[in-house]
Amino acid sequence: MQTFGEAVELASSCPLPQAVGDVAERHISDDLLKVLRTERLKAPDTLQVAPYQATPVCGAITHHHAAGLHIPDEERPEEERMAAINETIQKYEKKLAERTKHHMGYPYNLDFDFGALEGLTRYSINNLGDPFIESNYGVHSREFEVGVLNWFARLWEIDEEEYWGYITNCGTEGNLHGILVGRENLPDGILYASRETHYSIFKAARMYRMDAVKVSTLETGEIDYAELEASLKANAGRPAIINVNIGTTVKGAVDDLDRVLDILKATGYTEDRFYIHCDGALFGMMMPFLKQAPMVTFRKPIGSVSVSGHKFLGAPVPCGVVITRFRHVLALSSDVEYLNSRDATIMGSRNGHAPLYLWYTLTRKGYAGIARDVERCMRNAHTLKSMLDQAGVKTMLNELSNTVVFERPREEAFVRKWQLACEGDIAHVVVMPNIDIAKLEEFVQDYISSRARVAIAAAKRVAADARAAEAESGDGDDDSA
Amino acid sequence: MQTFGEAVELASSCPLPQAVGDVAERHISDDLLKVLRTERLKAPDTLQVAPYQATPVCGAITHHHAAGLHIPDEERPEEERMAAINETIQKYEKKLAERTKHHMGYPYNLDFDFGALEGLTRYSINNLGDPFIESNYGVHSREFEVGVLNWFARLWEIDEEEYWGYITNCGTEGNLHGILVGRENLPDGILYASRETHYSIFKAARMYRMDAVKVSTLETGEIDYAELEASLKANAGRPAIINVNIGTTVKGAVDDLDRVLDILKATGYTEDRFYIHCDGALFGMMMPFLKQAPMVTFRKPIGSVSVSGHKFLGAPVPCGVVITRFRHVLALSSDVEYLNSRDATIMGSRNGHAPLYLWYTLTRKGYAGIARDVERCMRNAHTLKSMLDQAGVKTMLNELSNTVVFERPREEAFVRKWQLACEGDIAHVVVMPNIDIAKLEEFVQDYISSRARVAIAAAKRVAADARAAEAESGDGDDDSA
């Protein structure tokens, strides 16, 4: 069996399985030949590696083919239809409640109560286009959106008049936007990001046809600063667009922004020749509330910051915030020939409920309330680590992180019960505000029991093999006497 | 004053105003100089052209600066906070109700009742990644999503096993995906789309660094087939990625798919050298239910179709559906070096409530219910056109459309009251299922009154000028006697 260190290494390096589809496929003739979806998705039954779609998929993809609920084409009486619908929804709601209760793996805060906003789902709220220019569509929530954006501008220290931003559909959209703004300002720029960066950053590079450099990582998951420096030096002729991780997906590692800025200075990149996007996903929302943490601030020469809204704050729908400098965004919205539009967002129509959720949470909790949530999560993460350590489980917890990394459980049922995000041979628990000590206790007890079951089964297999070997050779003790 | 024909022409040709920002700006030095947002957005007070952010902005952008609701930083007692929040929400809900009632301009069906799903907003439902591969995050709605996708696959005649698709955040995401799939399969392809195409298509070309050809349009708003043919001939050396509009945004014009296919054949493009994306936004959801309409179907050699979910079907959040051939999507999900992921969506985290809204509406209404909605909308669109015609207003209504185009009202207050989408000198009403004859009657009466006020004011200005001229020359009739 692998050591824990080897597993951590593996998680960042193992290649994509062949089962996913081979590149050659796209060059074959296009004469409407049939390529069947389920055949392609099927992975060997012997492999049971769980997919974590928010990080690079590693190892084989298990099938878990989602079956669709059939929608009947024929007409049925209203009453019959509604009865069937209500039954389906009731069953579904029970599943949601159970799955929400047993959840440890993803960085989502599932503890929220938006009861006060419930009546608003009767309206089709759409903030289409720019948050700062009202469109004629009156059913919008721009006043809430701009309020939330102003709050984040204060958090990241940029004047209201100097920023531009919007509430996105998720962390990926914030990253896609940040990298696009970087490319539009430095069209010949090379993208630099560490190999443990969220995959949306490299997705952006591919979408935008940018040259990208994948930089190695340190054991902690931070970018390898020496390698970054060497790479910047080697490509000194072209501008740099750098993604700085404020908490990686798997290990919660924070790239050191100040050190990256020092490296840029040392390698001769002036401020007009680099653009930094900070991917704050989860931790970008927590770090400003930690006293000892380095500051992500627009007082430093960064270009954009994005965070998710459904992660630390929690929301029924995925959402996020991206803030950039207004002068940067002009490059996106001003091109007559192509865009012919003032809309600098990635999406056109935009979910108007998301700003309401964020506004509500920020207003209700306030700065002090969020700070309390952050402190409790950090404390509970250390409690989880200590519990696992004391129980003899190898763990890792970065100083600036609420993501506890540990050996991947071997029982698939356990992984699925607790909805653990796994990569290679490691798993993690992200200690969010909805996870209290009682839940951690239940989880650790369950984890140790699962390990014991696996260990006992392994030992028993050895015994069974030995017994079989003895029986074959005929020289064992005879139980049949 | 312009003629109506001139205005229609103008709407498609007028350049972006200088106020929006000039291209030169992005090349200036990057020494953190201040560029202030509101200064940039301010348009001359005399210009009152309303922006329609879902189409290319034309004419000056009016300011309409959205003010943010302040989120206090200081701590306040729970009771005080909740009282303030509830007061804000109650006031906001009244605004939403009023704005929903007076709405004519955007193709959104505001008539829906998702009361049966209300309890589900307590859950953070997220279908992250591929709809067909379950992730370990258990709080998802893939069974509903795949059910909806299968329904659309039946509608557009593609086998369940041969399609791939997902529920998007909006029409734009469907277009971004369709064009990306086209580019990944034909990396050297040139994008062709008509000038009245939704701006997201040209946004895609710019994002993806593709060469794009903007083809002229006929009077109806359809693509100019002769110009398309000439352009395809001139670029015969490179593959073609063609966007076909199933209803343009402003005039509801439907590009003739069969004619485009004939042109491709005539100009020597074999099926492996073109990719067709059908932008179905609103009308792609209506056309299959009209007997005389040409079919959008995967039995023809098209690559992808997208529609919006919040448009014809109606939903509290913007959403949409994109369907493509599974074999095409392999090009997106298979590249190890860049993506290292099985996720072929544009977004990573995906709103899990949107599939529930679509599933609910499709199941409740059924095929027959949707057909009835479509028929009523088409009938009411003709009623609106006849009412305006009879009242002496110039109108336009394409045969396959529920979008009635007419002269732009001159009173800004009227435009804003009814939330009309305007472009240049034309406005339109999209007759959606929530608009009945009584509402059309109210609207037309209001429109004619507004026109009369403007006409009377214009006549009075002439009289006042004449009176002033007389007074100056001293030879008028003397009222002071």
Please characterize this protein's 3D structure.
The structure is a homodimer of 481-residue chains. In chain A, β10 (421-423) and β11 (426-430) form a beta hairpin. Residues 1-32, 41-64 and 334-340 of chain A have low confidence and may be disordered. Chain A is globular. The longest helix of chain A is centred in the C-terminal third of the chain and has 38 residues, at 353-390. Chain A is built from twelve helices and eleven strands. Chain A is 39% helix and 11% strand. Chain A has a domain at 116-365: Type I PLP-dependent aspartate aminotransferase-like (Major domain) (Aspartate Aminotransferase, domain 2), CATH 3.40.640. The first copy, chain A, is α/β, with parallel strands linked by helices. Chain A has a seven-stranded mixed beta sheet, with helices on both faces. At the A-B interface, α2, α3, α4, α5 and α6 of A face α2, α3, α4, α5 and α6 of B. Chains A, B: It comes from Monoraphidium neglectum. Chains A, B: Keywords: Decarboxylase, Lyase, Pyridoxal phosphate.
